[in-house]
């Protein structure tokens, strides 16, 4: 009865518009109080304890830093210089600007690890450029949002950090390595429908008339941005610093590039940058901590074991259960953001994964791919919200274009499901 009330309170609060984190915390608190009716005050001591325990985890320190990195590189002009360099390489022509948008978004994924931050940085440059070349704004917004979704797969990734906190047997370096190949495949899977749609519908008819940046000059301007992922990922691989320390190194590197090299960031710009990063980080961390209360309530009320037993013994078989979980996550991904999906469902799903002997690193990549799909799946798609705001178009206008892009990334999800070594080969090769 109390277990059912836990979910009913959470769903009811979500329906009336209560933020996800607050709904998780209130539902968990209500369930804990009702499960200890005789000594409710004693049981409620678990609320502050789990609130603190959910926050006091060393890997979570990387999240505010990577959020700050995204804000810094957004304002440093690195995205524009990378776009110019990519344009100098691939040239001009129908479908080239969408391809460049996705390539640059993939590259920025090796710096910030945040989809919305990447959508803001790339969208600020590419949506206007594609409009000048004759691409419809809804199409441009869809391409930018989809390209930015690869950021949570290509390391460093905020999503992988949260998953490693929830699943300690999956280390951050192993998850980072596991996301590399699927992330690159997802990028190419998005490029194919993006270019096909552009050429089929005759978009970008003015693109060939736009000037092509000189190669060597654009390379020189882009070098500092190109070096960022090498420093961050190479430093972690060489053992110079941990993922959390890498985030701090990235912050100071971004400030050096923005303030000393490109000089696009001044001392006056630091306060709005820090404020923006602090606000976004506070929201993420608050959801994480309040979800800890919800997860503790699930465990204490013995909700997880009956659900696991019912699903494993449902007669669907391993692949049937996996398909059921994907459909479930696809549905909730249309309404919840990725972090909330991880915090709500990973405690429920890991016992099922353990029952079937699924590799926790591979399972983390599968869940992250699903979250990446949700980042540009209407009606609640954080990347799409950002790009549509920049393009000044309603989200529903992007649906005809988004569907083809979703199909492309879905193909990668199916491939990783069918061939787990696409995710596991690199971490095994690197010894994780």
UniProtKB/TrEMBL annotation:
The complex comprises the extracytoplasmic solute receptor protein and the two transmembrane proteins. Keywords: Cell inner membrane, Cell membrane, Membrane, Transmembrane, Transmembrane helix, Transport. InterPro entries: DctM, TRAP_DctM. The keyword Acyltransferase does not apply. It is a multi-pass membrane protein. NCBIfam families: dctM (TIGR00786). GO terms for cellular component: plasma membrane. Part of the tripartite ATP-independent periplasmic (TRAP) transport system. Belongs to the TRAP transporter large permease family. The lineage of its organism: Bacteria, Pseudomonadati, Pseudomonadota, Betaproteobacteria, Burkholderiales. Its main location: membrane. It comes from the Bacteria. Residues 7-421 form the TRAP C4-dicarboxylate transport system permease DctM subunit domain. This is TRAP transporter large permease protein. The chain crosses the membrane at residues 55-73, 114-135, 142-166, 172-198, 219-240, 246-265, 277-299, 319-349, 361-381, 401-426. One of its GO terms (molecular function) is transmembrane transporter activity. It is found in: Cell inner membrane. The keyword Transmembrane helix applies.
